Amino acid sequence: MxxxxxxxxxxxxxxxxxxxxxxxxxxxxxVSRGKMRYGHLLEGLIAVREAADAANADKNxxxxxxxxxxxxxxxxxxxxxxxxxxxxxxxxxxxxxxDALEERAREAGLTRLWLVTTNDNLASLRFWQKRGxxxxxVHRNAIAxxxxxxxxxxxxxxxxxPIRDEIELEKRL
Length: 173
Ligand SMILES: CC(C)(COP(=O)(O)OP(=O)(O)OC[C@H]1O[C@@H](n2cnc3c(N)ncnc32)[C@H](O)[C@@H]1OP(=O)(O)O)[C@@H](O)C(=O)NCCC(=O)NCCS
Known about the structure:
The protein is 25% helix and 34% strand. It is of the alpha+beta class. The protein has one domain: Aminopeptidase (3-Layer(aba) Sandwich), CATH 3.40.630. Strands 1-4-5-6-7-9-8 form a seven-stranded mixed β-sheet, covered by helices on one side. Strands 2-3 form a two-stranded antiparallel ribbon. β6, α2 and β7 (112-118) form a beta-alpha-beta unit.
């Protein structure tokens, strides 16, 4: 998408992020590996699309539209990807957010990007593996513990599969 820009999340995005995560996932709370976070307080990257008239420096041009979101948590070595969402699927937004993260992570000297997904999310296993992420662990029954923190996690997930395990994927940089 030629008029798309990726930029870091800013404080001014937080209200939008809270609404967005609530709309997409039914909550702003994110749980992985037994740890809870508030999604709208996380750092991350956002994909925005410039309105066509913005190129002509029209001061009445519509503001850039937010079309994708990636949230993360990181330390000196590793970065966990907590959410990745695209509002226009199949146009390269998800991949562009990941590429931008990878570039920034390398520049910062990080050595590992990682995430967990649930055992029912087959599309996500395909998506991540095609982008160089490898399956490194199955945390069996991890969702039982996650449900104690976040009871709204459903029992049955995509394709009628019981949601039980966290599958960990990583990309070494
Ligand atoms: C996964 C997701 C972020 C991809 O964003 P996108 O902008 O469509 O990404 P791209 O255009 O760069 O790539 C499209 C790829 O995603 C796949 N895809 C489409 N819908 C998907 C979905 N619901 N979940 C996972 N992958 C999906 C497409 O089949 C395509 O796969 P391929 O190129 O590997 O064959 C987007 O589909 C999405 O928001 N999904 C719902 C939220 C979600 O499940 N996020 C977590 C992923 S772990």
